[in-house]
Amino acid sequence: MRVLVVGSGGREHALCWAIAASPLLTKLWCAPGNPGIAAVAECVPIGVMDFPALVAFARAQKIDLVLPGPEAPLVAGLTDAMTAAGIACCGPTQAAAQVEGSKSFTKDLCAAAGIPTARAVRFTDADAARAHIRAQGAPIVVKADGLAAGKGVVVAVTEAEAFDAIAAMMDQRVFGEAGAEVVIEECLVGPEISLFALCDGEAALPMGSAQDHKRAGDGDTGPNTGGMGSYSPVPVFPPALAAECMDRFIRPALRELARRGTPFRGFLYAGLMLTPDGPKLIEFNARFGDPECQILMLKLKSDLLAALAAACDGELKHFDLRWHDSATVGVVMAARGYPEAPERGSVIRGLDRAAAVPNVTVFHAGTEAAPDGAVLAAGGRVLTVCASGRDLRNARDTAYAAVDMIHWPEGFCRRDIGWRALAATG
Description:
By secondary structure, the protein is α+β, with helices and mostly antiparallel strands. It folds into four domains: about 1-95, Rossmann fold (3-Layer(aba) Sandwich); about 120-185, 2-Layer Sandwich (Dna Ligase, domain 1), CATH 3.30.1490.20; about 190-320, D-amino Acid Aminotransferase, Chain A, domain 1 (2-Layer Sandwich), CATH 3.30.470; about 325-425, Phosphoribosylglycinamide synthetase, C-terminal domain (Glycinamide Ribonucleotide Synthetase, Chain A, domain 4), CATH 3.90.600.10. Helix content is about 30%, strand content about 25%. It has helices spanning about 10-20, 50-60, 70-75, 80-85, 100, 105-115, 125-135, 160-170, 240-260, 290-300, 305-315, 350-355, 390-405, 420-425; strands at about 1-5, 25-30, 40-45, 65-70, 120-125, 140-145, 155, 180-185, 190-200, 205-210, 215, 220-225, 230, 265-275, 280-285, 325-335, 345-350, 360-365, 365-370, 375, 380-390, 410. The strands form five sheets. Strands 9, 10, 13, 14, 15, 16, 18, 21 and 22 form a nine-stranded antiparallel beta sheet that branches. Strand 1, helix 1 (about 10-20) and strand 2 form a beta-alpha-beta unit. The protein is globular, with a radius of gyration of 21 Å.
């Protein structure tokens, strides 16, 4: 098979890394890719939103399967463009991708499908939103309705923080039209879990679960980010509960989307909160998580490309996957100033030493190559240093041993990935 992956982050590096091991693969491209991806795929300088160029490239290279990584091109209709050109694309249509593109859409979907989720009210008027906050009090959650690169959710501990969020989203439009409508939710309490499935419109194949760390600083302090690290398995989310949540969240959503004539194909990601009243949905996403994808690809024994092809062919009901029993930990290394204003252009050294640590894989995210071949920081989240181990503590120690091999004074990372699980196990 001739395969094109679309994207340039750590998630796309992990997907390319897994696909490159497939005996079904003839040639792998990534658009636009990054220096790490270039080691396993041919990178082509086409942006993820340049649909005409992506379709033309896929046609010219006789691509058999396209795999979009990030949410923005999916919500904008990349799958529709590829399908119209007769090219198989393992991702949801624009209509189905509204599970991530609109928080209001997802609330309606949950109501129709009987999916447990937080109580919520939507607003297009800022003053009405502020009045609702005064009436409800804090803590309270304010979400921009549309895509905001993982930064459109504010868990407001005080009413003042909630008012600031309304001002930023609705008055100042820091997220553009994504903040024209907001969804204000009750604040759920409990461990947060990421649950993943590969879907073919009807069937759903479990792709594992993980716990992400959204706050920038140790001890879950600082601003929300796209994710500073993750680990799997999660002790508070055993296999039996994961299977139950596939039946309570993923499969009802698939049935409702199919009933509406917008079947979902690709990776469906359920962000769950394990509340005292049972698991509840925080959000759906229309793609694999980042940095969860990186650690889950390390656990996958089976051929990812075969699974993707089965999803495109509607054959997942006949498919299964095998997984390693190991624990995996991923530590995100970010550029100083992330998430507000990450610094770009600093040189990263020691990547080869880090990758040489046994059971370690370093996935590139926001990197670029200098003319002399040096690797430079070119984004907010720049690397994900991942390790496998016999248990969570061993995997975490190995990941941080590799982190310490990397010389990058302008970068930072959290030093406590997996801390809740390790504190619980002693």
